Every structure is written in structure tokens, then in C-alpha cells.
Amino acid sequence: MAEEHHISNFDPGAFFQLHDFDYSLTWTPDEIRRTYGLDDESAKGVSDEKKAEVVKVTMERFDLDGDGVISRQEWLDGWRSGSRLEDFGLGPGHHGDDEYEYEIHHFEKFHDENTREEDLTHPEDIAHFRKHDEDEAAAARQEELDHMPIVEQNIPQKFRRY
């Protein structure tokens, strides 16, 4: 929590609110997956069975009325009675966008505000900026296609005359 959110003291209500991504005052199975970073690219090696187990165990522990979501009150009641989120050994979780995750998990650990672009040589830096380059190239390709009156690649082969 301290690393992810720059918070030094744990407050169960604040933790719930930070991870209630849709502001519905409940945690859904999707929000549990997101909290644990199970849908992030970094979790692609985690089996579907393990991901289902994470959701199942968390729901069993905190969804006290069995309605398929964890309300803020259920979370607080569970916390007060000693229930805690399980550490499934999956790492810190990834639930922000790529920029946020890079900033929190890499840049803040190994760089600072005085770091120059030429100093960003770690494999994580290279992969991060490669993704930027790929995203920019894809946007440029899409921009080109958007300006074409007819995009021949979109015409099914059986309707082409050549």
C-alpha cells in the first residue's frame, strides 16, 4: 500500500475506496481481479485457475451476504473481525494504466526528477519507451487510414476486381 499509493499508514476504509474503481461502494469480481493485477500484462503467466481462486477466496472471506459483491460495510466488518486480503504471491498488483505502473514500480525506485533521457537504459525503461513508439506508430497508421476515402484492405477479397 505504501509503495503503490504513497500512504504510510493503513486505513481499511481508504483502502476500500482506492480500490472501488467504479465508485459503486462495492467490489465486484472484476475489481478484485484489478486490485490483484490479474488482468495486467504482467500476470499473463498466472493460470485462469489461480485467478479464479483469488476471486473465490476473497469473496468467501468478505462477501458476507453472498450477493456476489463486497460492500464497503462487509469489507469493514470483515477487517474488524480479523479477515485480511490473502497474499497469493503474485506481486504488488497492477491496477493503473501503463504510465502509472511504470512510474510507481520502476521510475520512482531507480530514477528521480534529475534523470536525463539518456540515463533511462534499464530493460524496463527500454520496454516502456518502445511501447510509446509502437503506440505512436499505430496512431499514425490509423490517422492515415482515417483520411483515405476507401481503404482497400477493408474490402473483402471476393468483391475486389484484381
Describe this structure in words.
The structure is a single chain. By secondary structure, the protein is mainly alpha-helical. It is 49% helix and 2% strand. The chain has seven helices and two strands; from the N terminus they run ααβααβααα. It has helices spanning 2-5, 12-18, 29-35, 48-62, 72-80, 98-110, 123-146, and strands spanning 26-27, 70-71. The chain has a two-stranded antiparallel ribbon with strand order 1-2. Helix 2 packs antiparallel against helix 5. The longest helix is centred in the C-terminal third of the chain and has 24 residues, at 123-146. The N and C termini lie far apart (60 Å).
List low-confidence stretches. Answer: none
Average pLDDT across residues?
87
Proportion in β-strands: under 5%
Q: For the report, how would you describe the main beta sheet?
A: 2 strands, antiparallel
Structural class: mainly alpha
Q: How far apart are the termini?
A: 60 Å
Rg over C-alpha atoms, rounded to the nearest angstrom:
22 Å
Strand runs, count: 2
Arrangement of strands in the largest sheet? 1-2
Morphology: extended
H and E string: HHEHHEHHH
Annotation field: number of helices: 7
Summarize the amount of helix as a percent range: 40-55%
Essential attributes:
2 strands, mainly alpha, 162 residues, two-stranded antiparallel sheet
Fold topology:
Blueprint: H1 2-5, H2 12-18, E1 26-27, H3 29-35, H4 48-62, E2 70-71, H5 72-80, H6 98-110, H7 123-146
Antiparallel strand pairs: 1-2
